[in-house]
Design goal:
This protein has helices at about 5-20, 30-55. It is mainly α.
Length: about 55
Amino acid sequence: MNKTVILTIIYVIGIIFGALGMGIWDAETNIYKAMFALFWTAIFLIALFFADKKN
């Protein structure tokens, strides 16, 4: 498997965990949950950058 595919699968699993386990998309979402989602996306983008840079 390609590194980008593996990273994308890990990212999607993390988003699903955040949605169901942490309640990121609930009606009563606070700023901390939103910052967690932004932080997770930033880590994903950085990982994609370095994975593609190595190829």
